[in-house]
Structure formats: structure tokens, C-alpha cells
Amino acid sequence: MDGLLNFLTGLSVLLILFVLASVRRAHIRVEYSVSWFAAALILLVVSRSESALRAISGLLGIGVPPLALLTVAGCVFLIVLFRLSVIISGLKDANIALAQRVAILEFHLRTLNEKTEAHK
Amino acid sequence: MTKAATPESLLIIVPAFNEEAAIGSVVREIREKVPDVPVLVIDDCSVDSTVALARAAGAEVLCLPHHLGLGGAVQAGYKLAYELGYQYVIRIDGDGQHDPAYVEKIFQALRRSSCQMVIGSRFLDGGGTHSGPVRALGIGVFRLILRPILGKPVHDPTSGFVGVNRAALEVFSKSFPLEYPEIEALVVLQRKAFSFVEVPCRMRPRMAGRSTITAMKSLYYIFHVLLGVFVNVLKYERRRRLGRPAQ
Question: Which of A35, B110, B149, B247 is spaced 20 to 30 Å from B23 by Cα?
Fold first, then answer.
């Protein structure tokens, strides 16, 4: 079981480093990195804190503490993914509205240009 | 195409995506059968010659900067028509399945009935359908589900041969389903206390290409649309209970 905890600790450290690097290279905006940092930190703290792990496994009624940690990790990442789905949906709506507006403005511009050419 | 000049102004919109094999014929046929009505092709970022062929055939073209899907393309057309002041809009698909000879019939139904939407139905007069078995099954399921929601039967809920008046145009220019929009649009209208009527129309096979809705996609289509209908019913019921006007 220590192996699993060590693996999860390593995973959370790697996640923090990866997200940091991505933010630095501007692959992820800071506001969208917050969820991942929070998820990785929760995973790191719980995987290194035996008392926290026992408390959680007792609360969830799971006899094997690392399994409780995996359950918590799964829930945290589900929340992160749901939050990202909400953000993506909003961005898609905005993107569609923008694309339609661009198309309509281009249409008006083209019509205007044709009228101007016709009057020359 | 400029601002609509008359109170009876009609615009025909044709959403198209990679329809170079059919779009020229479709536009020419519309201009031949309804010569005084402007035609607007909404190009959903085609990678073929759809835009050039539509313009060559005499249509105005609204070019979307990237692919939005059918609902996004149709809504762009509705938005432009609403801004230009058109009173009526009839949608014809760019694949040649809809016969423009029925435009006049749909237009007259829009003007004479008090309905906000007129659907060209392939099933009303016992006319044929070119749907596969899965799609036909889907249509049957939708009919059953929509009957209690709409309060009256709808024979061809998936028909894209649809005319709307300015009241519906205003609603759709603000809110329109993006994927597989026909059925959800009916629910949106019903929740706004609008009504629709069907008129019999004969549909033809596609002039070219294949439908994007395959057998597997049909199952996804059914699930997607059912979810959309359910969400719309819940959304508008909640607004009604809260006493808020439907947006």
C-alpha cells in the first residue's frame, strides 16, 4: 500500500510541475490552472498525511486508506473536469456568437463595398 | 440583398456545408420557381467550391469563419434576416431534398394562419420518405414523445423545410439549438406559446453526397434530441413557475 501512496505523491508532484510549466509557457491561462493546482495539492497533502488519510477512510467507511485516497482523488478530478466542461460550454457559446457576428459584419461590408463600386 | 423593403418580405435561407455538387442547381431552381425572392446561402466554412457556385447561381452568401454545424449556420441566417427586417424566412436544405415549388405553399400558410412556424411535412399526404429504418424509427419515437409536449400531433418533426414569421425569427435569432435543431426548435416555440402548422410537401432524394447521419449517429441523435427536449421543457417550466418571462 505504501507503494500506491508513494505513486500518488509522485503523481501529484509531477502534476504540479507540469501545470507550472504549462502556465509559464502560456499553454494554460492562470485562472484555469487553479483547479489543477488545487486538485494536485489535495492529493499531495492527503497522500503524505497518515492522520488525514485515516480520517477520510473512516468517514467513507473504506477499510483500506489508499483506496479512500483514490476515491477522493477521483472525486476531486471529476469536479475539476465538470468545472472545465462548464467553462468550455460558455466559451463555445461565446465563440459561436462571435463567429456569427463576424460573418454578418463581413456580409454587410461586402454589400457596402459592392454598392460603393456600383456608384463609381 | 439589402434591408427588407415590404411588410410581406420573404427571404429563403439555404444552409450548406461542402455542397458543391448540388448548391448551384438548388439556387438556380429556387430562383426559377420563386424568382422575386432573395436567396441567402449560409456557408458553414466549406472547403470545396460551394461559395463560388452559390454566388455564380445568383445567391448572396453569408460565410461563417469556421464550421458551426447546422444549428449555428441556420441561426446566423435568422440573425441576419432579423437585422435586415425580413418578416418571413423559409429554410431550404442545400442538398436538393426540398422542392422549391412548395415555397409558395409554405409562404401562404405562414401569411394566412396565425402560426409562427410552418413545417413542410413529407408524411401528411402519404408521401414517400427516403429515410433509413433507424431514422424512421427515431421519427416514430419523436412523434410519440412530442405529442403530449406540443399538445397536438406533429407528423414530420425532423423536417428542415421550415418557414417562420418575424415573431419566431426574433426568438430563434436569440436562442436556437445548435445540433439537430428541428425538434428542439419546436419545443422552444411551444414553450413560448407559439404554434405551428404542417403542410404536405414531397421530398426528393439528395442530389449528391450522403447524409451525415449514419445508423450509429442516429442513436446518438435520438439520445441528444431527447435530452435537449427534456432540458428545454425543464428550463421553461422553471421560468414559468418563477413567473419570469421566457427569454
Answer: B110
Residue at B59 is within a domain: yes
Q: Is there a domain that residue B44 lies in?
A: yes
The answer to whether residues B1 and B31 touch, using CB atoms and an 8 Å cutoff, is no
Dihedral in degrees, nearest 10, Cα atoms B22, B180, B185, B71: -60
Does A1 have pLDDT greater than 70? no
Task: Categorize the per-residue pLDDT at B137 as very low, low, confident or very high, splitting at 50, 70 and 90.
Answer: confident
Torsion of CA A44, A50, A55, A60, to 10 degrees: 60
Note the pTM of the prediction, 2 decimals. 0.84
Nearest CA distance, A50 vs chain B (angstrom):
44
Q: Which residue has the higher pLDDT, A97 or B247?
A: A97
Put simply, the answer to whether A104 touches B64 (Cβ < 8 Å) is: no
For range A19-37, the mean pLDDT: 91
> Using an 8 Å Cβ cutoff, are B14 and B39 in contact?
yes
Core vs surface per residue A2-29: b (16+ CB within 10 A) or e = eeebeebbeebeebbeebeeebeeeebe
Give the integer Cα–Cα distance in Å for B88 and B111. Answer: 9
User: Which among B60, B64, B83 has the least Cβ separation from residue A103?
Assistant: B64
Report the candidate in B169, B32, B52 with the shortest Cα–Cα distance to residue B41: B52
- B193 CB burial (10 A radius; 0-12, 13-18, 19+): exposed
Domain count for chain B: 1
The CB-side HSE value for B186 (13 A sphere, CA atoms) comes to 31
B41 lies in which domain range? 10-239
| B81 contact A CB<8A | no
**Top mean-pLDDT range of A9-18, A43-52, A70-79, B171-180:** A9-18
CATH for B45: 3.90.550.10
